[in-house]
Design brief:
This protein is an alpha/beta fold. The protein has a domain of 226 residues: Aldolase class I (TIM Barrel, Alpha-Beta Barrel). It is 43% helix and 9% strand. The chain is built from 12 helices and 8 strands. Strands 1-8-7-6-5-4-3-2 form an 8-stranded parallel β-sheet. Strand 4, helix 4 and strand 5 form a beta-alpha-beta unit. The chain is globular, with a radius of gyration of 19 Å. This is Dihydrodipicolinate synthase family protein. It is an enzyme of class 4 (lyase). GO terms for molecular function: 4-hydroxy-tetrahydrodipicolinate synthase activity; 5-dehydro-4-deoxyglucarate dehydratase activity; N-acetylneuraminate lyase activity. Keywords: Lyase, Schiff base. Its EC number is 4.1.3.3, 4.2.1.41, 4.3.3.7.
């Protein structure tokens, strides 16, 4: 995994060209790091450091903070800054750190860009604007303005379930071709659209196509994706590193078996009773319960107003861990 040093990239606008060094901005397994919290919902810095060590020891290729799995939308600006500073400091150059700068409008995103870049992030991950409906021309303008002001590479984050806008493959490729985007994290669930980006970007230098799916990593890598950003990699980073290596080695039979094992483990995200909680509470609660059960973090608390798992639901998480050979 190769990233330019912070604050050294010259941002390029529409008239620019992609960097010609042939290096991908990011590749391999890049977990979207959970944000451990104390019982009073402050960032648990010692647990966060242990989580970084847990991921690093497994051989992951990078760390992505302040994404959906990090509960970025639930954190204050102060907490976001603390998370970035903690992970950058503790990673200590062992791994590049990507930081989400998710917010509703361009000016607010630019404020986050300045904050995480000052904290040492190696790249920023940016969604389309949200709250108001945005036209593709406005989305393109948003990314161009952010890239023009960012001292580090910009990776687009396609997550329509959260921002209610699907990034068109053609727009992503246009921005990539103009040197505005250094990559795409695709959490849209649209494998055909992702394939179009992967295929269309093959001739581009310095652009990375990453899947955000836990369940189709083998398929995405077979299509030619550069890597994966799976939330479940917090719980089982060794499994995703193993899967990535098997795919790169062309051992598709063993890769399929590993992917199926991880799909079975991912079913833990459905342990929460939908009559009393949403899918986010269930999934993030399961990830944190698993990390707590594995001794990585001190407390499984999720950010307010998410609903915590019950004891019975947590016991179900333990059964999934045992079934996957993790307990």
């Amino acid at each position: 995994m190769t990233l330019p040093a912070p604050h050294t990239r010259e941002p390029k606008g529409r008239a620019g060209a992609p960097e010609g060094n042939g290096q991908k901005t990011v590749s391999g397994v890049v977990p979207p790091v959970c944000t451990p919290l104390t019982p009073d919902r402050e960032v648990d810095v010692p647990s966060l450091r242990r989580l970084v060590d847990h991921l690093t020891a497994a051989g992951v290729d990078g760390l992505f903070v302040l994404g959906s799995t990090s509960e970025a939308a639930f954190l204050t600006d102060r907490q976001r800054r603390l998370v970035t500073e903690t992970v950058v400091s503790h990673a200590a150059g062992r791994l590049p750190v990507l930081a989400g700068v998710i917010d509703m409008t361009t000016p607010r995103v630019l404020d986050h860009v300045a904050s995480v870049a000052a904290a040492g992030a190696d790249a920023v991950v940016v969604t389309a604007p949200f709250y108001t409906r945005t036209h593709p021309a406005e989305i393109a303008r948003h990314f161009r303005l952010v890239a023009g002001r960012s001292p580090v590479p910009v990776i687009a984050y396609d997550i329509p379930v959260a921002v209610h806008t699907k990034l068109p493959a053609g727009l992503v490729l246009e921005l990539a071709g103009d040197g505005v985007l250094a990559g795409l994290k695709d959490s849209s669930g649209d494998l055909a659209g992702f394939r179009e980006v992967v295929t269309g970007s093959r001739g581009l230098s310095g652009f990375s196509a990453l899947t955000g799916s836990e369940l189709t990593v083998d398929s995405a890598l077979a299509l030619g994706a550069d890597g994966a950003v799976p939330g479940l990699a917090n719980v089982d980073p060794d499994g995703y590193v193993r899967l990535h290596r098997l795919c790169r080695a062309g051992d598709w039979e063993r890769a399929r078996a590993e992917q199926e094992r991880l799909c079975g483990l991912f079913r833990m995200t459905g342990v929460g009773n939908p009559a009393r909680m949403g899918g986010s509470s269930s999934a993030l609660g399961a990830f944190k319960a698993a990390l707590h059960l594995r001794g990585v973090i001190d407390c499984p608390a999720t950010a307010e107003p998410q609903v915590p798992l019950s004891q019975e639901e947590t016991e179900c998480v333990a059964k999934y861990l045992a079934g996957a050979g993790l307990m």
